[in-house]
């Protein structure tokens, strides 16, 4: 089974389902939009409830389904104006002759029509009706009015209609509607079709079955970078050591514990277009972690013999399937830029983000970071900002770089 691209991560779609036999296909449409990472809210017309149940729609969309204007009267509820605007795109599928006429004439007699009148977002119609209704001058005129206002259209297709007649009027298949949604929103997804690999968090290196060596990394920066890359449309894999953070939305997470597991998980995800190594990987592991818990036996404390861990960043940077862009972090406490430059050369990565983690900066575990981006051309210092903002800025830079001619 092919995995659909995460082309709609971070996109919010308001789906209006009107009352027509094609409404059953809208259930599949919801599933396919969600598979691609979109959040889907649904408004059903009263007539649509005859074809699909609010329960099946809310189960598939994992959200509330709105049917009546009265659903929205409670002050704790989302208002109809917010419902109409809290989205990137409004999709009407199926768009019936009746709802198209209401839109063309600016009627607002029910929730669906009201939302369509109140929205300031782009609208995409997937018409579905009998072929005579579709060809009727009234529908033609209404569609022309809506097209002149910039309303988009996908379908209808020609073929056999529900009544056994045939002609133009059949709603487009869900995948064709998804493609139209992607085309409409595509400009905002500069990393669509690109694959990103991100490491994050600390690693835990076992001393014995109950004790381990770790470090203070929270994973916040790496997780934020994975979320930001996914939000720009990248198919994003996050290989994370143990953290307390929730999985970022739209990101496939591979949980690991040790440096060696992290390396194996990363190699299994190649090829990728970009790799960002934000994990604070333990440089060493206890050389002989046994099956049994170490016991105090009254003698001298045990000495820990250490073995060196693989360097994940350096391995990716020198791999036969090297990602086009390999990015590392340099956490330093002194001589930040000089050490980071040397690290970039030593590890063979393209960019290195140098950050000062000396005591008092609050970077480790904190919500802010202050970084310098070092590449072959020089050093660019970014002002101190939240880890989320750094992640978004980095993701935009990555998108610019990957979209340059190869
Ligand atoms: N890194 C890695 N694998 C390791 C060690 C580090 O992938 N085994 C990556 C980190 O994710 C980071 C970069 O290398 O992107 C630099 O990490 P840092 O801990 O600062 O560098 P070290 O190699 O540990 O160098 P040193 O301890 O000498 O400063």
List the keywords.
6-stranded parallel β-sheet; binds cytidine-5'-triphosphate; 22 strands; 406 residues
The rough form would be described as: elongated
Percent in strands: 15-25%
Q: What class, by secondary structure content?
A: alpha/beta
Rg estimate, integer Å: 27 Å
Ligand species = cytidine-5'-triphosphate
**How many DSSP-defined strands?**
22
Report the mean per-residue pLDDT as an integer.
91
Q: Which strand order spans the largest sheet, edge to edge or round the barrel? A: 13-12-9-14-17-18-20-21
Distance between the termini: 30 Å
Please count the helical segments: 13
Low-confidence stretches: none
- Portion in helices: 25-40%
Largest sheet: 8 strands, mixed
What's the structural blueprint in terms of helices and strands?
Elements lengths: L11 E6 L5 H13 L3 E6 L9 H8 L3 E2 L13 H6 L3 E7 L1 H9 L5 H8 L4 E5 L3 H5 L1 H12 L3 E2 L3 E4 L5 E5 L3 H12 L9 E6 L4 E2 L5 E2 L6 H12 L3 E6 L11 E4 L3 H10 L5 E4 L6 E3 L19 E3 L3 H6 L7 E8 L3 H12 L3 E6 L11 E2 L1 E5 L2 E4 L3 E2 H17 L3
Parallel strand pairs: 1-2, 1-4, 2-3, 4-5, 5-6, 9-12, 9-14, 12-13, 14-17, 17-18
Antiparallel strand pairs: 7-8, 10-11, 15-16, 18-20, 19-22, 20-21
Helix pairs in contact: 1-2, 1-8, 4-7, 9-13
The site of cytidine-5'-triphosphate has 15 residues, from helix 11 and strand 17.
């Amino acid at each position: 089974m092919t995995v659909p691209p995460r082309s709609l991560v971070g996109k919010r779609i308001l789906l209006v389902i009107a009352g027509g036999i094609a409404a059953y296909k809208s259930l599949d449409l919801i599933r396919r939009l969600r598979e691609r990472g979109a959040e889907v809210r649904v408004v059903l017309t009263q007539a649509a409830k005859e074809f699909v149940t609010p329960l099946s729609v809310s189960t598939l969309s994992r959200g509330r389904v709105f049917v009546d204007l009265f659903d929205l009267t409670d002050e704790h509820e989302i208002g109809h104006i917010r419902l109409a605007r809290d989205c990137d795109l409004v999709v009407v599928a199926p768009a019936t002759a009746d709802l198209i006429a209401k839109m063309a004439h600016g009627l607002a007699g029910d929730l669906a029509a009201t939302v369509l009148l109140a929205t300031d977002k782009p609208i995409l119609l997937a018409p579905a009706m009998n072929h005579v209704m579709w060809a009727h001058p009234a529908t033609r005129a209404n569609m022309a009015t809506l097209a002149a206002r910039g309303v988009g259209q996908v379908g209808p297709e020609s073929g056999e209609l529900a009544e056994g007649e045939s002609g133009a009027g059949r709603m487009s298949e869900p995948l064709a509607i998804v493609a139209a949604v992607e085309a409409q929103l595509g400009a905002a997804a500069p990393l669509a079709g690109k694959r990103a690999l991100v490491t994050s968090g600390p690693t835990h290196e076992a001393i014995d079955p109950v004790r381990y060596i770790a470090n203070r990394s929270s994973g916040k920066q790496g997780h934020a970078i994975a979320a930001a890359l996914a939000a720009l449309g990248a198919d994003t894999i996050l290989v994370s050591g143990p953290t307390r953070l929730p999985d970022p939305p739209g990101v496939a997470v591979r949980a690991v514990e040790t440096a060696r597991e992290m390396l194996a998980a990363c190699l299994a995800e190649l090829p990728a277009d970009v790799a960002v190594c934000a994990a604070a990987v333990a440089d060493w592991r206890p050389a002989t972690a046994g099956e049994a818990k170490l016991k105090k036996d009254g003698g001298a404390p045990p000495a820990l013999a250490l073995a060196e861990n693989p360097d994940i960043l350096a391995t990716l940077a020198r791999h036969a399937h090297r990602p086009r862009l390999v990015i590392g972090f340099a956490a330093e406490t002194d001589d930040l830029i000089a050490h980071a430059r040397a690290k970039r050369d030593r590890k063979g990565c393209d960019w290195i983000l140098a950050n000062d983690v000396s005591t008092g900066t609050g970077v480790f575990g904190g919500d802010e970071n202050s970084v310098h981006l070092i590449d072959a051309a020089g050093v660019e210092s970014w002002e101190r900002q939240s880890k989320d903002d750094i992640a978004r800025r980095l993701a935009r830079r990555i998108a610019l770089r990957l979209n340059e001619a190869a």
